[in-house]
Amino acid sequence: MTRIALVTDSSSDLTREIYQENGITVVPLTVHFGDESFIDTVEISSSEFFHKLKNSHVMPRTSQPSPADFAAVYEHLLKSHDFIFSVHISSKMSGTVQSARIAAETVEPDLIEVIDGQAVSLVTGLMTLAAAEAIRQGKGVDDVRTTIRHVMSNFGLYWTLDTLEYLQKNGRIGRATAFIGGLLSIKPIMSIEEGEIAGVERVRGSNRVFPRILELMHSRIRPGSPIDVIVLHADDELRGKRWLADVQSEFNCRRTWLTECGPIVGTHAGPGTIAVAWVEPMQG
After folding, report:
1. 181 confidence band (pLDDT: 50, 70, 90)
2. CB-CB contact of 216 with 158 (8 Å)
3. What are the pLDDT digits (tens) for 77-114?
4. Domains within the chain, CATH numbers bracketed
5. What is the b/e burial string over 74-99, where b = at least 16 CB atoms within 10 angstroms of the residue's CB?
6. What is the DSSP letter of 162?
7. H or E element: which one contains 258?
């Protein structure tokens, strides 16, 4: 049986426990506040980041891992594995995929497959979790690849944010520039399309956002179909728990996770961001 390793980057925003339980190796990005630099998940936690963000006069920025960072991880894993899938944040949002590809070419290109997930955060998390399940089931390289591609093609994602300040200042608005322009009491419902942030709808009043998201989910999920779901919050665990509980009561949830937005995505989305992503697992 082919021994398959799974790598992602820290922008996939799963918890340390989830990574460990699923055998996922994480290569961290770095967040910078002025002259201070912190390795994501290693030198700064999500809660520490949001505390610093709220109290800092400096807008943070992020940087991807170097090819050398990836190469060291790949070389280590190939000592005990036959093949590596490395699944990462959209190349339209970060240079992380490029660093990973340079490293793969240097180390062992035939044994390392770098995948541009064309998404970010909890969606990339869904891809790696689906791949991890396939690996546990003893699936081979082709089947694991098919599983990852299935999530890439069939995921659902809706998210909203409290403020546009961070997206605008960090230049990550993508296709949603016109969509979110001039919002006052209007709250945006957002998604990801072709690797970029995209607007879905505008809702008047924050209390109407989640009910509308549930309606949108019902329009896309076949009645009774099992789904795997992740809810992500940015420094608002109680709200995240409420969202997850409501999703569980409305849908046939096979597996669920609650996780917190990390420093990399948090730099661009800001506190108060909340999201739900799901996928119907492959059959057979």
Report:
1. very low
2. yes
3. 999 999 999 999 999 999 999 999 999 999 999 999 99
4. 4-153 (3.40.50.10170), 156-279 (3.30.1180.10)
5. beebbeeeebbbbbbbbebbbebbeb
6. S
7. strand 252-260
